[in-house]
Amino acid sequence: MSSGSGSLMWFRKGLRIHDNPALEYASKGSKFLYPVFVIDPHYMKPDPEAFSPGSSKAGLNRIQFLLESLRDLDLNLKRLGSRLLVLKGEPSEVLIRCLKEWDVKKLCFEYDTEPYYQALDVKVKSYASTAGIEIYSPVSHTLFNPADIIRKNGGKPPLSYQSFLKLAGEPSWVSSPLSITLSSLPPVGNTGNCNISEVPTVEELGYEETQQDELCPFRGGETEALKRLRESIENKEWVAKFEKPKGDPSAFLKPATTVLSPYLKFGCLSSRYFYICLKDLYKNVKMHTVPPVSLAGQLLWRDFFYTVAFGTPSFDQMRGNKICKQIPWNDDEELLVAWREARTGFPWIDAIMIQLRKWGWMHHLARHCVACFLTRGDLFVHWEKGRDVFERLLIDSDWAINNGNWLWLSCSSFFYQYNRIYSPISFGKKYDPNGDYIRHFLPVLKDMPKEYIYEPWTAPLSIQNKAKCIIGRDYPKPVVAHDSANKDCRRRMAEAYALNQKMSGMVSAEDLRNLRRKLEEDQKPEVENKRQRKLIG
């Protein structure tokens, strides 16, 4: 390599200085370093048609979190004698333009397993290699390289967490120290005719200022991520005893988890550094929980989903996805909208959906409740529809993990005990008998006595009047009767599972249509009988 040449560091995720092998390699032996982030209209351009403020892909909370993370990255780069160069446009075109314009001999970026980035990377890499530019794209977003695990498993991803753990063992990098700090970076070279800007504000991207009464309480960026990590780890006993799926989904003043997921999603926090910190802590305590329930176990779950997602074509849909059961879900837009807009009439479910809308985050058990309710628990709406809502609104929305969890919670893959459900009434009550979580996120119910707060439709009218909340006027009636809806869902799941078994998983669109018709016809006499019973009664 000629001395005095430049390197381009392309940031996408991995928005950090600590444990960033691509950044470290880009700065080694380079006279100039160009740290680039491209504002991608695909993710960032305002979409007035969407059901919530944001772009066609992401809600405003996540866009805001990303911009905060970029501002923090820029400050941290400035401390090291560099800065972040922000450009706008289709990323592969912008990158290729920069590579043509600048004297760059090395292109460095963190490897990404998401299909969108895989396609982008092919374009950029093919230009760079033709132009004789060295490409360095290390795996540092996950603990393991998903491709290695798939190779060890004979070319297929492991489909259970335990088989994943057996194949994975300890990560290979654990024995060598991670590079956590950099003392300085090469200066930015001449940027020529490239149109470079500072990190924009949401208003500069074309969004209106939000008038929301309660904003997302989590700030983006590496500085905040490392602070949260330190605070979590200071409580040694809590970390040692951490046991998922325990934890209180109704705790909102002090969430019952680390809330590090959005920082891991954007790579403001290195999962490898987090893992090492946990391993060090475990060495110094007498007893600690182990995977799958421990905190280190949660990082391994993340890698498990990344690996399955990487090795499964059409992972994000039902059709053409070999590991997904084919189920004749409802196409009921009204039920979907009631769920999405927090109008199901079940306060526990609606409060969670309001927290999602306002904060862009909720506890994992709260996510489980609303996902189960939408799909196999009550409404029998397609998991892909729920996945789209989460993908948009969550600040920690992560392609592999979000799809993996929806497959799991709808009993489409990984988990098949569809008779085990989260009750929309009794589950929340267990943690929060007084309904404080509901009162906070659904103030319309704040004066409802605790006896009725999970089922306000059962409150006598005099009580509803006193609570200034008439059901059907101030707060909706339930969209379904839980017991009968759940019974119907179980019947449909049983039939769908039987069909999948009979066809050895090779269920055609025609087969699904026929099953849907049969299920609807089976339901008619049941509805008719109920009506008759009502008339007689």
TrEMBL record:
Annotated residues for binding of FAD: 257-261, 298-305, 396-398
Protein's name according to its UniProt entry: (6-4)DNA photolyase
Residue ranges occupied by any Photolyase/cryptochrome alpha/beta domain in the UniProt entry: 5-143
Molecular functions (GO terms): deoxyribodipyrimidine photo-lyase activity; DNA (6-4) photolyase activity; DNA binding; FAD binding
GO cellular component entries: cytoplasm; nucleus
Keywords: FAD, Flavoprotein, Nucleotide-binding
Species this protein is from: Prunus persica (Peach)
Reactions it catalyzes: (6-4) photoproduct (in DNA) = 2 pyrimidine residues (in DNA)
Cofactor comment: Binds 1 FAD per subunit.
Cofactor: FAD
GO biological process, any: entrainment of circadian clock by photoperiod
